[in-house]
Write a structure and sequence with these properties.
Strand content: 15-25%
Radius of gyration: 13 Å
Structural class: alpha+beta
Order of helices and strands: HEEH
Oligomer: single chain
Helix content: 25-40%
Shape: globular
Distance between the termini: 12 Å
Strand order of the largest sheet: 1-2
Number of strands: 2
């Protein structure tokens, strides 16, 4: 998940659109509860796009955080 709870639904959907247009990565928005009367959202990469996403970002991930990219 991308923890994008501080963004609105519209902003999350825009980020998903950019991932699709620029990188051909499929992502979805997920509801993640409520805070201060506001619905929270986060983004997840679909299983079919995860390998592609991982390939794109791997060169930029510190070795100590590689474990977070497990499938």
């Amino acid at each position: 998940f991308f923890h994008t709870q501080s963004f609105s639904l519209k902003e999350n959907l825009r980020l998903i659109q950019i991932l699709k247009e620029k990188f051909k990565i499929d992502a979805r928005v997920s509801s993640h509860g409520w805070s201060k009367g506001r619905k929270l959202f986060r983004i997840y990469i679909t299983a079919k796009s995860f390998i592609k996403f991982k390939t794109i970002i791997s060169p930029y991930i510190l070795k100590s955080f590689i474990y977070k990219l497990r499938e």
